[in-house]
Amino acid sequence: MAATTYNYTLSAFDAAGNVSSQSAPIAIVTLSKSTPVLLKLSPVADTLIGGDQAHSMSTTLNVYTWPDYMIANAILLKFDLSNIPASAIIDSAVLQLYQVEADGSANAYNVSVHRLLDKIVNFALATGFTYDGVNPWSPSTCCYNNTPLAQSNISPAYSTLAVDRALGWKSFNLDQLVRDWVRTPPSNLGVLLNSDATQIRDRYRYFASMENANSSRHPTLLVTYRLPSSGPDIQAPSVPSGLAGYSLSTFQANLSWSSSTDNVGVVGYQISRNGIQLGTSTTTHYSDSGLTPATTYNYTVAAYDAAGNLSNQSSAVSVTTLGTSATGSIKLSPLADSFLGGEEVHVVSPTLNTYTWPDYMIANAIVMKFDLSSIPAGAVIDSATLQLYQVNADAAAAPYNIPVHRIIGKTVNFARANSSTYDGLNKWISELAQGDISSAYTSLAVDRNLGIKSFNVKQLIQDWISDPASNLGLLLNSDPTQPRDRYRYFASMESSPSSRRPSLLVNYHFQNTGPDTVVPSVPTGAQGSAVSTIQVNLSWEASTDNMGVAGYRVFRNGVPVGTSTTTSFSDSGLTAATSYQYSIAAFDVAGNVSSQSELVLITTLSP
Predict the structure, then answer these.
(1) Taking a C-beta distance cutoff of 8 angstroms, is the pair 578, 605 a contact?
(2) CA 253 – CA 247 distance, rounded (Å)
(3) What percent of the chain has pLDDT over 70?
(4) Which of 215, 282, 437, 514 falls 20 to 30 Å from 291 in CA-CA distance?
(5) Which residues are paired to 273 by β-bridges?
(6) What average pLDDT is seen over the chain?
(7) Is-contact 538 564, C-beta < 8 A?
(8) Which domain holds residue 538?
(9) Is 187 in a helix, a strand, or coil?
């Protein structure tokens, strides 16, 4: 029992059954739940892997990027956790490495923490090509010269630390990793710290190893744990049920299941792929990426509690990734739609309208929002068409131009938004959201004929897939080139019949070889000038990318205002005699986005 004193004595006996007198008693007090134990551990082995040489006797452990955007080295460490009781509740686990050298760049260097899978490493002989001096790591094309570097033998990242240039101790969070190892000791094959594939060549961090002459700088693992208050919890959670899986890409499998139960409480779930533990989740879903196209994988899930009790494995589910020629299409309805005009809210109106009144002025604007989460990450958008059904039009013969914009910087409450406010309380920068939208992505000259009108929103959807957080909705604007009382009316989500309601048709395909994780280079040479009281023009040098640059995002005062597929951009609708800061970021078709360029300060002309 916890926090209780027990007295023990010993007696000796021989084969004839003779028993000695008892020894003097010794008192032992069991730990209480509130008494934390701090354990400081040194690695039983450490090394770095890179190239075909063993580095276990090196005085440093380093992570290194070479060439541009590729992993050159990785750090391996192994800890003996046998002194941590199986029932221990892990409060924290911190890996401490002492940084002894860093490159000259001001940028932080991201070092990710992974668990080694399915290879028993000989640290004295391991290289970038083999895990024991003879047998190879699983193949990988991640790195220079196709050096595997254990990249196909590691779990997804448990944590990532942005390591600055300052020398001294750097602390990596290993809480969940140590919990997993204590719960399933055979899975403790070691930990890998990865280099940063988002950096250019010759970016690095060096840490002291166990062979460093200054022993005070050696790696350490600090583990704080507690024991249960009323004796060990030995009851395992129930087996997870309802495991289901699917794949919407060539490189990722998605899993979901029903919750388990436990006498104390379920802490999380352990996911296994083809019988090998892959990772953990504190929710009832998990995504496994970095897979091979057109390949079948078998998954099981087990639940665990805080005491480390693990349920039996669930029934297995097989998931086959899509082939390299796979394509997809989806039809989406808006999550919400409305039109802005006056102080009233129009979210339940059966129509959406654009209206010009008085002469050459915007009176109304259409807003709507789509949930794109069902389009898989990494998808390349082939086409995206917004379809609106026109139900009424003015009598003029001239077409009515409707541009499509992206809403920026405002989270719209569609049930309360009006021409003045985006949520019934907080105001737009200017009326009808005109100061909170990007430059036009496209514009459609809408004739008078009733029926379906199709807006090309391919680039807008690709931008949202690349940066989901920027999906705040779209706005269709009225035509300020028309005289008063020119308009177009479209069916809304409240329209009857339902066949006329708005829809978004998206066609996409998948990359051929799994996820592209390499970001484009940072745009350089950004410059600009004001050409009027309301417009500035920008230009910059082209970025480079391993798969090709798809376009550029333009930021005004830190907020994205549009994209360009060329190395120039015009930003209009500005205020006279006002200074704006611009920066540029490049993106590729996989959604990788570079860091932003240096800022350019531009002041619009005075009236």
Answers:
(1) no
(2) 5
(3) 94
(4) 282
(5) 276, 299
(6) 89
(7) no
(8) 527-603
(9) helix
Average pLDDT over residues 86-104: 92
Task: State yes or no: pLDDT of 584 exceeds 70.
Answer: yes
Same-domain status, 311 and 341: no
**Of 560, 529, 524, the residue nearest 542 (C-alpha):** 524
What is the rounded CA–CA span in Å between residue 317 and residue 246?
9
What tokens were used for 86?
């199986």
- 359, 437: one domain: yes
Q: What DSSP string runs through 343-398?
A: SS--TT-SEEEEEE-STT-B--EEEEE---TTSPTTPEEEEEEEEEEEEEE-S-SS
Residue 268 CB coordination number (10 Å): 20
Comparing CA positions, the residue from 407, 478, 494 lying closest to residue 446 is 478
User: For residues 66 and 72, is the Cβ–Cβ distance under 8 A?
Assistant: yes
DSSP per-residue letters across 254-289: EEEEEPP--SS-EEEEEEEETTEEEEEESSSEEEE-
Tokens of 186: 């055979």
Residue pair 555/583 in contact (Cβ under 8 Å)? The answer is yes
**Which DSSP helix (H) or strand (E) runs through 464?**
helix 458-466
**pLDDT band at residue 364 using 50, 70 and 90 as cut-offs:** very high
In a domain, 64, yes or no: yes
Residue 598 inside a domain? The answer is yes
The pLDDT of residue 197: 87
The DSSP string of 138-182 is: PP--SSGGG--TTTTSBPSPSEEEEE-S--EEEEEE-HHHHHHHH
pTM of the model: 0.47
Token couple for 193 = 């710290």
312 located within any domain = yes
Q: Which tokens hold the place of 198?
A: 């988002």
Structural domain contains residue 236: no
